Predict the 3D structure of the following.
Amino acid sequence: YAAPAVVDKLPLSGRGSLLLVGWGEQAYRDAIAQRHPELEFDARNPFLGAQLPESGRTYGVVLLSGLLASCAGGQVDEILKAAASRLADGGVLALHDNFLPAGCLPPPEVVLGALGRRLDRGGCRNWSIGRLHDALAALGFNSIHSTPLPAGSRLVTASRS
């Protein structure tokens, strides 16, 4: 449901290629084909057993979708590192998920969604934007932006200058 909103907010023009890691392949494929038909699109869902493309292959944008909902402890850092290694020079790493906001209580739909995912999948780890910022900074990203989207989710984009 959020794929069109995410695609509209991503800096995709002139990027050449996008790798989706996670959930929503068909929704993202449709939204990208409609808005950026020239963009090469590849999707892998490691939570369904798909491996990321070989480490020599790079992309202008790597989008992680629903990462927190499916990762076990420690797995978020591993996937962030692997995704960052697939970025071309000047590329953008983007994450769409429900991150806990810092400094205020999250809206009920975020809390209930996180609780539901934890009960259903068992592996959900809740990350705040601050924790994500620190993890991305440790990977060398120095330009990090967070944009709120409908239903309490956020789009976080990161790049290295």
